[in-house]
Design goal:
The protein is α+β, with helices and mostly antiparallel strands. The protein is about 45% helix and about 15% strand. The strands form 2 sheets. Strands 1-4-5-8 form a 4-stranded mixed β-sheet. A 4-stranded antiparallel β-sheet has the order 2-3-7-6, with no helix packed on it. A hairpin with a 2-residue loop joins strand 2 and strand 3. The chain starts with 6 loop residues before the first helix and ends in a 6-residue tail after the last helix. About 40% of the residues are buried. The structure holds flavin-adenine dinucleotide. The site of flavin-adenine dinucleotide has 19 residues, from strand 1, strand 3 and helix 11.
């Protein structure tokens, strides 16, 4: 890995920085888990798209810029440094998008990717079910072929932003006699299909973007299947690799949190327990280490390599780092940490909110216990669970 940037990469960084400085909303947008926040985040995505920054690493034909992964990392650094909003269509652009590029037909790519890049269609992920979370191969939602349509029945749960999203990508059982990971297919479903019911799940902070999705004889065209029939597991595992490995949580996000933590220490640290200073330093070093390891992964991928079980190492690292950083901030804030905006003092605003969300990190994208099983079995070669 070459740690120096080329003049072209430096120029791209400067260009992105200037554009973001001119366009990032002055005030943070309301949470995307509220109807109004979701609408405003969708508008922001259109601004990004019109500026050519919706998904810099996608081909130009699909609304991207044709950048490589190093340039994507550079863009992410500038994006989070500028305090830009979280990406409301992250399930689409970071997870389904790369999956479509790998497994979609040319017609599917042309149909879905440009609308995704503009966030004209925002995507939810429909994998988990009440009895199939960590054990995803236990899913029971069915899709039977009737003529040229699939008829869906069953229930998905824990679907982020499904209350407001337009489409959901689902893993469903297309062979009723099949067991475990055989006989599953990957299907794309508009959430306004008759027979689809979305029921919001109120979160710890009272917001209701999270939802359950019920299918009752809901019909979608056969052409909405991604990849071969009954081969959905392989595709879902590729999507999970994008989620855990590189795309969903870029290092820049944690580097920005580490900088905020350092500023909090500068404001509040003088009277604090020196042990907390060590945690601030550790947060900084962890974020830098994650960044360097991601640059190494990106360089390897550009050279033709692939991401394997190390996606699980990444996932454990970023999710645990995020919790530690927020716990350190709350300890520095003391009693002021106990309030959410708008009641929280300005310095504390966002930290409690961020802490509550960080607690979900070891759960979503596959729990850390399961990632440890993957590492034990596939990296260390220990006996199966
Ligand atoms: C904020 C958030 C957003 C989410 N968004 C989505 C989404 O958009 N779409 C979607 O489909 N899902 C989503 N999920 C669901 C998430 O993927 C599941 O919660 C997760 O896979 C765990 O499944 P479960 O909740 O059924 O827990 P369970 O599988 O019941 O696990 C309960 C506990 O047991 C442990 N456990 C289970 N099996 C083993 C084992 N073999 N060895 C060791 N420990 C084990 C787990 O690690 C966990 O700690 C989201 C979850 C959260 C918290």
């Amino acid at each position: 890995m070459d740690l120096t940037f080329t003049p072209e990469q430096d120029a791209f960084r400067a260009e992105a920085r200037a554009w973001l400085a001119a366009h990032v909303p002055e005030r943070p947008l309301p949470s995307m888990d509220t109807a109004e926040g979701f609408r405003l985040h969708r508008e922001w995505e259109r601004v990004l798209h019109d500026g050519g920054y919706a998904m810099v690493s996608w081909p130009v034909a699909y609304g991207g810029r044709g950048c490589n992964l190093i340039e994507w990392l550079i863009f992410e650094e500038e994006y989070w440094s500028a305090g830009a909003p979280g990406r409301v269509n992250q399930n689409g652009i970071f997870l389904l998008g790369p999956t479509l590029m790998e497994f979609g037909t040319p017609e599917q790519r042309a149909r879905y990717l440009p609308k995704m890049a503009r966030s004209e269609e925002v995507w939810a992920q429909g994998w988990s079910e009440p009895n199939a979370g960590s054990d995803m191969a236990a899913i029971r939602t069915s899709a039977r072929l009737d003529g040229d349509q699939y008829v869906l029945n069953g229930q998905k749960t824990w679907c982020s932003r499904a209350a407001f999203a337009d489409w959901i990508f689902c893993l469903v059982r297309t062979d009723p006699k099949s067991e475990r990971h055989r006989g599953l297919s990957f299907i794309l479903v508009p959430l306004d299909t008759p027979g689809v019911r979305v029921r919001p799940i109120p979160q710890l902070d009272g917001e209701t973007g999270f939802a359950e999705v019920f299918f009752d004889e809901a019909r979608v065209p056969r052409a909405n299947r991604l990849g071969e029939e009954h081969q959905g597991w392989k595709i879902a595992m590729a999507t999970a690799g994008f989620e855990r490995g590189l795309m969903l949580r870029s290092p820049a996000r944690f580097q920005a949190t580490a900088r905020r933590l350092r500023r909090l220490w500068e404001a509040r640290g003088a009277d604090a327990d020196p042990a907390l200073r060590d945690l601030v330093v550790r947060a900084w070093m962890d974020a830098e280490a994650y960044s360097l390891s991601t640059y190494a992964t990106a360089s390897r991928l550009i050279a033709g390599g692939s991401i394997g079980a190390e996606a699980s190492l990444n996932k454990i690292f970023w999710s645990e780092m995020d919790v530690r950083m927020h716990e350190t901030a709350l300890a520095l804030l003391g009693a002021d940490a106990g309030f959410l905006p708008p009641v929280a003092p300005p310095e504390a605003a966002g930290w409690l909110d961020g802490f509550l969300f960080s607690l979900a990190g070891p759960i979503y994208a596959g729990t850390n216990e399961i990632q440890r099983n993957v590492i034990a079995e596939r990296v260390l070669g220990l006996p199966r669970d």
